[in-house]
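User: I'm putting together notes for a lab meeting next week and I want to include a structural view of one of the chains we've been expressing. I don't have a solved structure, so I'd like a prediction I can at least talk through. The sequence is below, exactly as it appears in our construct file.
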Amino acid sequence: MVYCPVLTMKSTARLALLAGAVALCGLAVACSSGSKSGSPTAGSTLGPVTPIGTASTALQQYFQQVAALDETATRRLENISGLLQTPVPDELRLDVVRQYLTEDVAIDKDLRDGLQQLSPPAEARDAHKATIDALTGVIDIAQSAIDSTSNDPIGVVTGPQAKAASSKLADACTSLNRLAQTYAVSATLDCGQ
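Assistant: Thanks for the context. Below is the predicted structure for the 193-residue chain, given as structure tokens.
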């Protein structure tokens, strides 16, 4: 039997914590943690940023919409986290990983689709596009793990491509944090770094 302790689930940079999940659980799961506390993630390269002024109403609304999408994804992830908290016989482990990843991909796709529906103000366009592109990369990796014929989804989601996709998403998240700080918007994402 394999038992996975409670993991904090958020929608930002889940692949960034994959290696830790494997070490803790013997399972590969895409997960991340998030914080609305206003402080950058420990180890983050996001240093002090001097605000250049107050954010436009459009930028404030944009970050509110992103936060709402993130909260919806987070709640959905918390609902499926039970898959990882129940002792599982070894022979069912890969099935549980695939089931979790399948549901995670659906959540990530909904998050990406929601982000694509937003119209970010000019100052957020580049970071917004980078976030969508990076999230698509994470989705592609998780989908390839689900579809893996080698019976090794764990190897797929912990391999170099997954690490690169995770890093790209963390960088995009950091860019959003920097943008929020630059315009004194009260929003800080935990980028899983």
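A couple of points you could mention at the meeting. Confidence is low (pLDDT under 50) at residues 1-50. The helical segments are 18-25, 57-80, 82-85, 93-117, 125-147, 153-158, 160-182.

User: Perfect, that's what I needed.
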